[in-house]
Adenine phosphoribosyltransferase (Kushneria marisflavi), 183 residues
Amino acid sequence: MATSIYGDYIKSVIRTVKDWPEPGVNFRDITPVLQNSAAFRKLIDSFVHRYQELDIDAIAAVDARGFIIGAPLAYELGCSFVPVRKKGKLPFRTISETYSLEYGESTVELHSDAFQKGDRILLVDDLIATGGTMLAAARLIERSGGIIVETAAIIDLPELGGGDMIRAEGYSVFAACTFTEDE
C-alpha cells in the first residue's frame, strides 16, 4: 500500500472521535484537515504529485466526501470530474451497481455517458473501510468503458480489509494515510 509523502502530517491533523456513531467505533474526522488551509493544500498536493505525470482522463469521485478531493484534484490535473452518486441523485440516464453492507444493501449510480471507451480513470473517496463502495464504483466505471488507473483515498483502515479486497480484484490502492484501530 502506497501512502503520501505528507501522510504523517495529514494523519496528525485528522481528529479521532471515539465511540461515534456508536460505542466501540473510532470515527476518523477529516474536517480539521479541510479547515486548515496548509493541511488541505498538502492533502491535495499529495494526490497531485502522485498523479501529475500519469495519463488520466477523469477523476471519478464517490458521493459525497470523495467530491472534496476529487474536484480540486481534477482541476489541478486538467482532467474532467465525474461524480459517482447514491441512487436517485443523478438527473440523466444512469447505470447502477448494488453492493452489500453489513446490514443490507446500497446502490451507486453513474451517468451512462460519463466515460468514453478506454478513458483512464482515477477513482477517489475519502475512506477505505470494507471496500464495498469503492469496488461498486470501479465496476460501474468499467461497465461504462473506463479503465481504472488506481483507487485512492484520504484514509485507509487496513484492519477492516477493504484495501486488501480492492487489491484482490486487481486494482492498485493509494491512501494519503492509514489508521489502525488502536491509534
